[in-house]
């Protein structure tokens, strides 16, 4: 703080004096109330200062003019800049009350008196005191501010780092230390490289500094490394601080650790896309996935289906048992649904008791229908809440992409409309958006259910058709042909249900049943025949898979039937060498002494290379070549060629569908080994087959 400048005469001039002319009388002046003063400054006519007259002296001679009253020994004037101490000393020494004050150029300036000095000093003292108090107040204030500022600095949640223009760290706050793990002592003097994670290349930092230089600011997300090595994301803002000359003196970096923000962001994202109650995707996420499915479907020409599901008795439950109970039911339903579907499918909750299932990549309507039925069956099972079991049930509407709609909204709308129809039909059902398709599929599904029941109830049976050696007319084989007698007594042929069983995966169970039945009843047929009877069994292409031979042979073993009595019939397309598992299956069969026949030969691709490449023992010429054999020369030629070729390959030849004696006769002359057909015997029940064998033996 600057020292207080010393007071001078000009600073403490007396306000109470009057200017008078040398020739004026004191009495005249003193009686004029306006001009009364304790001292008078006397001037001559030319305006020159002559001296001072104090009122107390003049009052002794009131009639005199001021020229007379000026005592000869006038005190010497003081110059304006005379220090006040000197002035005071003179006043006391000279015994006068007033001294004239002149400016540097000698002009009269005013009067200084003991009183004026005293009051001036008092005023100054007062001013100084006030100034001091103000200063103290300001200081206190500043001190407080500084404390506040430093506690703000340290209390900030954001980390702060101040560097000089060479990026040496000068100052850090507590949050810096908390976030990075480096104390102020460790950080100060280092550069921010201390925190580099290695996750950003030089290009990143170059761009950062370019922006600080050009924009005066950089702000963004950056990965840094804590002292303990952990890498974390922070939101950083770097700004230069300029000095008064506009030069960059410091850089201030303010950052916050956003690892928690990111967790929060993930949580928020979850909230935005998932249903809080069940944890399933919500409408928003479903719409996103639908959009993706549509885009993908259009690109890759893939189909998908939308199943709109609504619980049947939920409203009642909610009303009678309360929302809490209802919530438990919804949670249980959600768990059941997500557990039952493929991970590639989406189950979403739209709200209330409405759910949507997005089935990806489903080509066959039957497969969609089956899943729909599976879901309904699942939800028809009681739900256990605490110790209670409740039945909810559901109805379901189905819309398919691309047939029923090409965009998410249309698909949802159509599935919803189909759901409405399902509810109308009576609850616990599904309904396809298209009526025609719906009816067709319903029938199919009913058929599959009936077939399943047929398996359980024993309404399936095997018919046997004899195979005759043309040379001597003896029965050398019996082909097992599957039959299904329905509840109303009608007999259903395999062509009507084998395909269905194949599509719905029932074929394995069916195949196992047929084999077990052959193994079980075959013994009787063999015993009834006195030659080495071959029992023919038809296998579907879908039964060809790894392990099929083991399964088949084990089944025979179980019932004590030797494999050499078995002739496995497979169609040409089923035998296509491309199919995985064909060769091992055939090899295992032939090794176990079973025969392998190519069924319906001539209707498929008739790949001769295949006949040579695979271990095949028999060739069955399809009925279509035999039918017109008597009249069609071409057919005769073809059959002859087939027989010759088969023989050349060492295969036995069977003609299928022989209905007349002429056909049998012709086939024999063409060199055919065996024949099968109505002429020799229709497919018949076991008892008939047995007696036929006994008769022919
Ligand atoms: P396939 O193996 O070619 O069986 C011969 C079919 O021709 C049988 O029909 C038989 O009744 C019929 N047939 C026999 N002789 C004559 C004839 O002189 N004239 C006419 N018009 N037809 C004759 P079916 O029993 O209806 O069987 C049809 C097909 O179903 C079979 O053809 C076979 O591929 C399949 N199949 C039958 N049983 C089974 C089985 O247990 N499993 C599998 N996977 N398929 C089977
Ligand atoms: Mg057959
Ligand atoms: Mg056939």
3D architecture notes:
This protein is α/β, with parallel strands linked by helices. It folds into four domains: 9-113, CBS-domain (Roll); 143-262, PAS domain (Beta-Lactamase); 276-433, Reverse transcriptase/Diguanylate cyclase domain (Alpha-Beta Plaits, 2-Layer Sandwich); 461-478 and 508-696, TIM Barrel, CATH 3.20.20. It is 44% helix and 22% strand. It contains 24 helices and 27 strands. The strands form six sheets. It has an eight-stranded mixed beta barrel, surrounded by six helices. The chain has a five-stranded antiparallel sheet with strand order 8-7-11-10-9. The protein has a five-stranded mixed sheet with strand order 13-14-12-17-18, sandwiched between helices. Strand 22, helix 18 and strand 23 form a beta-alpha-beta unit. Helix 13 (365-380) crosses helix 15. It is rod-shaped and about 190 Å long. The mean pLDDT is 89. The structure holds ligand C2E and magnesium ion (MG) (2 copies). One magnesium ion binds at residues 479, 538, 569, 599.
């Amino acid at each position: 703080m600057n020292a207080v400048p010393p007071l001078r005469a000009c600073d403490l001039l007396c306000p109470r004096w009057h200017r008078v002319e040398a020739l004026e009388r004191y009495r005249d002046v003193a009686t004029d109330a306006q001009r009364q003063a304790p001292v008078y400054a006397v001037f001559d006519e030319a305006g020159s200062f002559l001296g001072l007259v104090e009122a107390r002296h003049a009052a002794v001679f009131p009639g005199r003019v001021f020229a007379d009253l000026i005592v000869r020994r006038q005190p010497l004037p003081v110059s304006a800049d005379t220090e006040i101490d000197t002035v005071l000393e003179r006043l006391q020494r000279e015994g006068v009350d007033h001294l004239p004050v002149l400016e540097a150029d000698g002009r009269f300036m005013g009067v200084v008196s003991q009183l004026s000095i005293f009051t001036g000093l008092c005023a100054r003292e007062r001013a100084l005191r006030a100034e001091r108090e103000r200063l103290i107040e300001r200081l206190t204030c500043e001190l407080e501010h500084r404390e506040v500022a430093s506690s703000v600095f340290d209390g900030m949640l954001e980390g702060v780092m101040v560097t000089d223009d060479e990026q040496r760290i000068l100052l850090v706050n507590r949050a810096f230390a908390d976030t990075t793990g480096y104390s102020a002592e460790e950080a100060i003097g280092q550069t921010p490289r201390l925190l580099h994670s290695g996750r950003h290349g030089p290009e990143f930092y170059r761009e950062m500094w370019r922006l600080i230089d050009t924009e005066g600011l950089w702000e963004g997300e950056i990965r840094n490394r804590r002292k303990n090595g952990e890498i974390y994301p922070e939101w950083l803002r770097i700004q230069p601080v300029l000095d008064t000359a506009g030069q960059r003196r410091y850089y201030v970096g303010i950052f916050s650790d956003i690892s928690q923000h990111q967790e929060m962001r993930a949580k928020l994202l979850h909230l935005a896309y998932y249903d809080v109650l069940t944890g399933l995707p919500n409408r928003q996420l479903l719409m996103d996935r639908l959009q993706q499915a549509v885009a993908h479907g259009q690109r890759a020409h893939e189909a998908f289906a939308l199943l709109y599901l609504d619980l049947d008795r939920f409203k009642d439950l909610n009303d009678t048992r309360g929302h809490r109970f209802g919530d438990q039911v919804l949670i249980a339903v959600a768990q059941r649904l997500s557990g039952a579907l493929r991970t590639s499918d989406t189950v979403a909750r739209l709200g209330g008791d409405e759910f949507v299932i997005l089935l990806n990549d489903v080509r066959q309507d039957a497969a969609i229908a089956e899943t729909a039925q599976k879901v309904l069956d699942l939800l028809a099972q009681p739900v256990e809440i605490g110790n209670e079991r409740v039945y909810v049930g559901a109805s379901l509407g189905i819309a398919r992409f691309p047939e029923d709609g090409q965009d998410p909204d249309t698909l949802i709308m159509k599935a919803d409309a189909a759901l409405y129809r399902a509810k109308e039909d009576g609850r616990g059902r599904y309904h396809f958006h298209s009526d025609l398709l719906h009816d067709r599929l319903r029938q199919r599904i009913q058929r599959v259910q009936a077939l399943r029941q047929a398996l359980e109830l024993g309404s399936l049976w095997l018919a046997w058709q004899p195979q005759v050696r043309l040379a001597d007319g003896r029965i050398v084989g019996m082909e097992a042909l599957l039959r299904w007698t329905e509840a109303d007594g009608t007999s259903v042929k395999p062509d009507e249900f084998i395909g269905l069983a194949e599509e719905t995966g029932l074929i394995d169970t069916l195949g196992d049943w047929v084999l077990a039945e052959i193994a079980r009843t075959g013994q009787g047929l063999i015993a009834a025949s006195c030659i080495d009877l071959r029992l023919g069994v038809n296998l579907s292409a879908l039964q060809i898979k790894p392990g099929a031979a083991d399964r088949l042979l084990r089944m025979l073993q179980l019932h004590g039937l030797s494999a050499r009595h078995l002739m496995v019939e497979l169609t040409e397309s089923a035998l296509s060498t491309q199919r995985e598992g064909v060769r091992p299956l055939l090899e295992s069969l032939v090794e176990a002494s079973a025969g392998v026949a190519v069924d319906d030969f001539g209707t498929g691709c008739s790949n001769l290379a295949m006949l040579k490449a695979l271990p095949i023992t028999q060739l069955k010429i399809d009925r279509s070549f035999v039918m017109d054999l008597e009249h069609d020369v071409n057919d005769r030629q073809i059959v002859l060629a087939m027989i010759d070729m088969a023989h050349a390959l060492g295969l036995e030849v069977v003609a299928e569908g022989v209905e007349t004696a002429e056909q049998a006769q012709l086939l024999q002359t063409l060199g055919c080994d065996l024949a099968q057909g109505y002429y020799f015997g229709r497919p018949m029940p076991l008892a008939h087959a047995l007696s036929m064998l006994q008769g022919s033996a």
